[in-house]
Amino acid sequence: MEPLRDRPTTSEALLxxxxxxxxxxxxxxxxxxxGQPFLFPSLGPSAYALAVxxxxxxxxxxxxxxxxxxxxxxxxxxxxxxxPGLTVTDLPPAFSMPGLQLTGAGFVxxxxxTAAMLRTDLRHAPACATTLIVGLGLLTSLTEAxxxxxxxxxxxxxxxxxPTTGVDEPPQ
Length: 172
Known about the structure:
This protein is mainly α and 172 residues long. Helices cover 64% and strands 0% of the residues. It has six helices and no strands. Helix 3 (61-82) packs antiparallel against helix 6. The chain starts with 9 loop residues before the first helix and ends in an 11-residue tail after the last helix. 38% of the residues are buried.
């Protein structure tokens, strides 16, 4: 943990929190208005990284979009090859073949995504959450994959449009 003197002040924390939420607001409205998954768990870590560490290499728009693209592709390949029709919301019994398929799909999805991000230098850690969302059977159709990528693109555009807070970034 960083020393207390290096932590953001309350006003800096509020500014960064406001920017994080402002990056997500359009996606919140889209999800609510359409009933589609424009808001999903890995968007939170991406928005946080973009808002709190905007100059970090992992916060570059290319890495944000590229990492999540690899997450979606890796997740789709792993899921549809290893565990089609299964989902983590309906857990199979312990030591069952469907359980092995589902956990195997998640494992392979993270491996594919990590290898692709490292090989292309499009590293964005929250993409490993996206690949698990897909690989574990939560968002597995091509339509849902397109929605994920649209949402990530909206987040990246919002990051360029909404001004940064001017708050000093934490040490890395």
